[in-house]
Specification:
This protein is of the alpha/beta class. Helices cover about 25% and strands about 25% of the residues. The two termini are about 30 Å apart.
Length: about 475
């Protein structure tokens, strides 16, 4: 059945992939050959419009998707639409009575909400619109606090392209019954400004929940973050019932924090979430897992360090890596307060190690969800992303951070087993990728592009601060 899907107007590239991921999570794709949803645009609407039609197999699945989604404002059973209120009235009257009458009965309560996009409507105008729906035979009582059924009248204006929103050529009006809606208390509850323990790279709550949805975090799954920091991503996964586990190279973050009441553990305690199974001091370059251990995690979700806010580090120190000094063993009496030496860790090496870790430690069908930075050239990005023989890329969602660079949320699904031959093949692919596409991935290059003057040259490519392409609100949030 086709439903009207209304999105919040932000993070536009993330909207459909989130719904697709949740649809798979809630059993939408029973046919193994079908792994994507059918989408349609309303008449006269731009692809970036918040209004879309989506075909879902049942109302229960639609409700589950809407209730869990971060970017879906609501999913609605559409009773009618039109370019004018006369067309809307005709469409509602022609909608089958067997679909309408169960929700108009005298024993039920209802509420009608008027919503707009691209315009502001006064309270008096909203009341006039509601009074104009008197031809719908509601028999129940109005209940504004907790009605049995919510109905929405949504109107878009024919503002063209002059007010900073995706262009709408012609006015369109929708009326429908709410099937499911987002939890509006979720993000205010988890907002960073009320978080007990924060670091400079703490993930925004909204994006962390989107990552957890892309990873399909749920009860009975184990989610791992190899760059856990202050635990923002794992908090989102734990909210959805997943067991969590994290690691970080900085032992001061995972062990000490800022005291016994201000650390990663206190963040979980603040929200009443199940504590992580373990927080390790571990190096992504030298994983701590015993030989032969495979397929442990259902999902790996992370934001690797790419050198803009914080650079990546790996164990060893410069002298040790150069062979100036030999490996050493820390004396027992100094181990408690010992902080190991570290060296610079380039993004290219970090991503290769992450893919190798995920290929080995994810179960079949498990998901790797991570951010990957890209430079913007003439308002476009290079679509060449890291690849691995064990993984299939299912979603790439761009978040534009400035005129110079973006970060892309990559969602990959494990489709093949990890073997020594696969590991060698992946290493070759990594070297080819590093050589051909990512001159800026070495230590410090991305940061120099982001913070340098108006124009900078990396290799043969020039990146300019100026851009003449028209932009509208929401695209660059």
């Amino acid at each position: 059945m086709w439903y009207l899907c209304v999105f919040f107007h932000r993070l536009l590239d993330y909207r459909k992939p989130e719904v697709e991921s949740l649809a798979e999570l809630f059993g939408c794709f029973t046919d193994t050959d079908k792994k994507s949803l059918e989408w349609k645009l309303p008449l006269h609407h731009h692809p970036d419009s918040p209004f879309h039609f989506v075909n879902l197999p049942s109302e229960d699945i639609a409700r589950n998707i809407a209730n869990r989604s971060i970017l879906v404002k609501g999913l609605y059973e559409l009773w009618g639409e039109g370019d004018s209120y006369e067309e809307l009235e005709e469409a509602i009257k022609n909608y089958p009575d067997e679909r309408k009458l169960p929700y108009l009965a005298s024993e039920s309560t209802f509420r009608i909400t008027v919503d707009t996009f691209g315009k502001v409507m006064s309270f008096q105008e909203q009341n006039e619109r509601i009074q104009g729906l008197s031809y719908i035979p509601f028999k129940g009582r109005v209940n504004l606090r907790s009605p049995d059924h919510n109905f929405w009248l949504m109107e878009t204006d024919d503002y063209g392209s002059s007010n900073g929103l995706p262009p709408v050529v012609q006015k369109r009006i929708f009326f429908g019954r709410e099937v499911g809606a987002a939890d509006r208390k979720l993000l205010p509850t988890y907002q960073l400004k009320t978080r007990t323990y924060l670091g400079p790279t703490a993930m925004d709550a909204e994006v962390a929940f989107l990552m957890a949805n892309q990873a399909q975090a749920r009860p009975g799954t184990l989610v791992y973050d190899p760059f856990v920091g202050t635990g923002s991503i794992l908090i989102a996964a734990a909210h959805f019932g997943a067991m969590t586990m994290g690691a970080d190279i900085d032992i001061r973050v995972v062990r000490d924090g800022r005291g016994p009441d201000c650390n990663v553990w206190s963040n979980f305690k603040q929200y009443g979430l199940e504590m992580p199974i373990s927080l390790l001091r571990a190096d992504n370059n030298l994983p701590p897992w015993r030989p032969g251990l495979k397929e442990v995690f259902n999902a790996i979700i992370c934001d690797p360090p790419y050198g803009v806010r914080a650079g990546g580090r790996k164990s060893g120190g410069r002298k040790l890596l150069k062979g100036v000094v030999d490996p050493y063993t820390v004396p027992d009496d100094k181990r408690t307060d010992h902080i190991p030496s570290t060296a610079a860790y380039s993004l290219a090496e970090c991503v290769h190690d992450l893919l190798d870790l995920a290929a080995k430690m994810l179960v079949m069908g498990g998901r790797l969800v991570y951010f990957y930075p890209v430079l913007r050239d003439n308002d476009t990005v290079d679509p060449n992303y890291p690849v691995h023989p064990c993984f299939k890329l299912v979603a790439a969602c761009e978040q534009i951070l400035s005129l110079r660079y973006s970060r892309v949320l990559l969602t990959m699904v494990k489709i093949g087993p990890y073997t020594d031959e696969i590991a060698e093949s992946a290493k070759i692919k990594h070297l080819e990728f590093k050589e051909n596409h990512v001159k800026w991935m070495e230590e410090g290059n991305l940061r120099s592009v982001v913070f340098s003057p108006a124009e900078v040259e990396i290799g043969e490519a020039k990146f300019s601060k100026e851009s003449s392409k028209p932009k509208y609100r929401g695209k660059y949030v």
